[in-house]
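Is this the right way to post structure tokens for a design question? Let me know if I should format differently. Anyway, here goes:
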């Protein structure tokens, strides 16, 4: 039987100011709808579903998404239980027997901003041929699960017979949904038109539409979207077409995907082809830069990945660059990678981030972790595949340099959290109500990568391990897996290793890799990158040697302007780890590097400015001010504000924030306000923006309750999804 198909529709009126929350639980329960990864239980229980919407805005502060969900099902359970969210308000539930003909899709319409027609009513269910069975109302209830999630239970009619197709229709509105990010024109680069995008990872799309919001359940979906002239709409779909005479976009995702990979973006976006199956989308003012950075190379990366892991199965690989309010660096939505525009100026980081998302096409999108407790099955494997692709295209030395840079960050995070931190396990136990987004840390990426690398070393040949991963993808594509599936497949593919009981080697047991806290049990040999990492170590040692005058003279002879970005970033990270430094060292560093670093990309500049702040080096504070005045991105503002507020520079931070807060997304604005208010009296606290919204602060986007105010900089965990 087919997996569910989803239909989407809706309307958007007016400009918007919504501040999304990023707090939802993982909870998908249904007695009759198992969420195990098995293809039998995934596929046999569900037929096509539809998720249509109408979006409406009541100016100036309220946005609502009004829509319905159509679930077409075959078995006869007594109740249907879906994930929902406090942002969702259910209006009605209805049941009808499945019609013989295909349904007529609904419309998702965007109206031009400004005065116009009133908000639309709740969408009516579309009638196709007029012969569809009438619908009957159903009882339903929403049960709070935590502050950031709900359980929606719909009671189904008892007269349903087993294997009789039927449909459930849910009408609802969604207000202040954390999955939906609305931007006023001034929060875009072009400052011309409003912008909206969705971000479903890890469990936010339950605020977008009621769904099985677990990676264990996958479905196909379709959408019809109507937008005014000049507003481009894109979705994570294998097929799309624009019908100009109707003014509508039609989308279809032909392969089953988990709910978190359903994504939409609409705004002032223009395309440019960069390869035979790829294009970039960006605001017009950014398009030339995006095109020049990626033209030709994306096809090289896709071809390298195909040689390693088999055919690319999603058709197109397009990239859309989003405004700086995008809350993470990148997101691997199938067919349409979302990536923050702020990364465009940092070439090497851009390369790594895009290749990582390319790797997710095989590991994460095609084969998905069945539970968020084993997120490393997506991120660890994608990181390994990313580094195999970079080795094929840029050589082993560059790959080893990037790996050394990331492992350095992993050990920094380990020192801050402690080696007994439960989140350092690869199999993390999620207690009921715990937000899976709290697991977005470097352990899922880098410790997971180290385990996968260790497996590759056991077989003795990277190419043989590539062959195994290719077979693994072929076996499990479009399903979800647990760790035991991967490990059983590995031992079956290499029976000689199974005979040697490699899974039980003392100190390196597979079980210990999965469930021990602390650093990786083994790390890769990075000696092939020594030509790039040795100069970094040598320069750092010079700056920490005695006497300073002699060391500084030797260090100034090293021309870091010819270094790779990851070399300079690694050097500055080492200095950051050693801060506070002696003032004479900071003064010499500034004299030697400050002007040079100020001309480099943002990934370099933020590291130097953090050194300035952590060492209270006042002569370079004007550079900090100028940087914060030009940045609207979470990844470049939060780390600096956290550092500024740990010492004597908090008044400076308050002053800069008051001058720049109007250019920040409300979500980021509130996150910084909370950082600034730590330790301040009521009269000194930064005044909040005018709002009646009393939502919780979303600053813990990646670290949950660890941030803000913790010693862990968001830069250390701001990795691509």
């Amino acid at each position: 039987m087919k997996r569910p198909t989803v239909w989407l529709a809706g309307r958007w009126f007016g400009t918007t100011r919504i501040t999304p929350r990023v707090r939802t639980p993982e909870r998908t329960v249904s007695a009759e709808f198992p969420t195990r990864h098995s293809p039998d239980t995934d596929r046999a229980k569900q037929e096509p579903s539809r998720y249509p919407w109408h979006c409406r805005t009541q100016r100036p502060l309220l946005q609502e998404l009004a829509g319905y969900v159509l679930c077409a099902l075959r078995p006869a359970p007594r109740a249907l239980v879906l994930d929902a969210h406090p942002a969702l308000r259910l209006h009605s539930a209805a049941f009808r027997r499945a019609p013989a003909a295909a349904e007529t899709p609904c419309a998702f319409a965007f109206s031009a901003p400004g005065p116009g027609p009133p908000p639309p009513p709740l969408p009516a269910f579309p009638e196709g041929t007029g012969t569809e069975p009438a619908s009957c109302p159903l009882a339903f209830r929403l049960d709070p699960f935590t502050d950031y999630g709900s359980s929606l239970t719909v009671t189904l009619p008892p007269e349903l017979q087993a294997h009789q197709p039927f449909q459930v229709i849910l009408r609802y509105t969604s207000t202040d949904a954390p999955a939906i990010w609305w931007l006023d024109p001034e929060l875009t680069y072009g400052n011309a038109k409003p912008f909206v995008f969705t971000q479903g990872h890890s469990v936010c799309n339950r605020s977008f539409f009621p769904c099985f919001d677990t990676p264990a359940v996958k479905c196909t979906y379709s959408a019809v979207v109507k937008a005014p002239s000049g507003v481009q709409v894109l979705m994570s779909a294998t097929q799309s077409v624009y019908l100009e005479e109707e003014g509508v976009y039609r989308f279809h995702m032909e392969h089953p995907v988990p709910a978190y990979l359903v994504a939409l973006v609409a705004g002032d976006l223009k395309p440019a082809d960069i390869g035979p199956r790829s294009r970039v989308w960006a605001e017009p003012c950014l398009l030339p830069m995006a095109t020049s950075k990626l033209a030709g190379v994306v096809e090289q990366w896709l071809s390298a990945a195909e040689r390693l892991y088999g055919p690319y199965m999603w058709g197109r690989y397009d990239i859309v660059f989003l405004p700086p309010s995008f809350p993470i660096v990148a997101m691997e939505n199938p067919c349409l990678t979302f990536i923050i525009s702020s990364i465009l100026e940092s070439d090497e980081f851009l390369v790594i981030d895009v290749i990582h998302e390319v790797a997710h096409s095989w590991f994460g999108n095609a084969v998905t972790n069945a539970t968020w407790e084993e997120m490393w099955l997506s991120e660890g494997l994608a990181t390994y595949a990313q580094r195999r692709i970079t080795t094929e295209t840029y050589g082993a030395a560059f790959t080893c340099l990037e790996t050394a840079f990331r492992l350095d960050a992993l050990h920094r995070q380990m020192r801050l959290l402690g080696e007994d931190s439960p989140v350092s396990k690869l199999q993390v136990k999620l207690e009921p109500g715990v937000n899976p987004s709290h697991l977005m840390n470097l352990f899922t990426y880098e410790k997971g990568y180290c385990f996968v690398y260790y497996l590759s070393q056991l077989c003795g040949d990277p190419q043989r391990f590539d062959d195994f991963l290719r077979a693994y993808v072929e076996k499990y594509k479009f399903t979800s897996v647990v760790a035991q599936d991967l490990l059983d497949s590995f031992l079956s593919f290499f029976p000689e290793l199974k005979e040697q009981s490699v899974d039980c080697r003392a100190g390196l047991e597979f079980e210990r890799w999965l469930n021990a806290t602390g650093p990786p049990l083994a790390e890769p040999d990075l000696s092939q990158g020594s030509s790039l990492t040795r100069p970094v170590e040598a320069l750092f040692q010079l700056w920490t040697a005695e006497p300073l005058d002699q060391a500084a003279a030797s260090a100034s002879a090293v021309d870091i302007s010819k270094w790779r970005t990851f070399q300079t970033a690694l050097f500055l990270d080492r200095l950051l780890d050693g801060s506070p430094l002696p003032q004479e060292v900071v003064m010499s560093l500034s004299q030697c590097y400050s002007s040079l670093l100020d001309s480099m990309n943002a990934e370099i500049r933020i590291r130097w400015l953090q050194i300035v702040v952590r060492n209270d080096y006042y002569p370079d504070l004007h550079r900090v001010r100028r940087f914060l005045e030009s940045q609207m991105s979470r990844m470049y503002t939060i780390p600096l504000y956290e550092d500024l507020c740990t010492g004597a520079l908090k008044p400076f931070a308050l002053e800069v924030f008051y001058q720049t807060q109007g250019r920040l997304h409300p979500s980021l604005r509130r996150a910084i306000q909370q950082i600034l208010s730590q330790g301040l009296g009521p009269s000194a606290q930064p005044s909040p923006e005018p709002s009646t919204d009393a939502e919780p602060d979303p600053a813990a986007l990646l670290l949950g309750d660890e941030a803000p105010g913790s010693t862990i900089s968001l830069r250390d965990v701001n990795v691509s999804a």
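Format looks fine. Someone answered above. Worth noting: The longest helix spans residues 396-417. Confidence is low (pLDDT under 50) at residues 1-62, 101-131, 687-720.
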